[in-house]
Write a structure and sequence with these properties.
The protein is built from four helices and six strands, in the order αββαβαβαββ. It is an alpha+beta fold. It has two domains: 3-51, Ubiquitin-like (UB roll) (Roll); 57-139, Translation initiation factor 3 (IF-3), C-terminal domain (Translation Initiation Factor IF3). The radius of gyration is 29 Å and the shape is rod-shaped.
């Protein structure tokens, strides 16, 4: 129908004539309540945002001389973070002359990677950054 005829029908029904696609030939329009349409679209986008999960980076800190029970606590924390879909940054901090024992810290990080291999994959291998040694793990798909 002609645009004037469609506009007349929309005014009779106290609604709006909304252009949906101007690329089509002829252009596609719809008679509807434009305010309600915008509200529904906004509601839809909010719902989609709620369902999205952004992967945060959670950090697990320890020292290379960690006791066995404390180590197991850190492993369970990391597993919980990975199950939630977050990445885990494992950091070992050195104090004073402890930095000489970076090989022990590297062994500890390798052990943690082995303990978490069913839940995570190594994203960044252990590397030294100043007085810290860190590695990054991401959850398996």
């Amino acid at each position: 129908m002609t645009p004037m005829e469609a506009l007349r029908i929309a005014e009779e029904k106290d609604l709006d004539l909304v252009l949906l696609s101007d690329k089509a030939e002829p252009p596609v329009c719809r008679i509807m309540d434009h305010g309600k349409y915008l509200y529904e679209k906004e509601k839809e986008t909010k719902e989609q945002k709620k369902k999205q999960h952004t992967a945060d980076v959670k950090e697990v800190k320890m020292r290379y001389k960690i006791e066995e029970h404390d180590y197991q606590v850190r492993v369970s924390q990391a597993q919980r973070f990975l199950k939630a879909g977050d990445k885990v940054k494992v950091t070992i901090t050195f104090r004073g002359r402890e930095i000489q024992h970076s090989d022990l810290a590297e062994d500890l990080l390798a052990r943690m990677a082995k303990d978490l291999e069913e839940a995570a994959e190594l994203q960044q291998a252990p590397k030294k950054e100043g007085r810290n040694m860190m590695m990054l793990m991401s959850p398996k798909k």
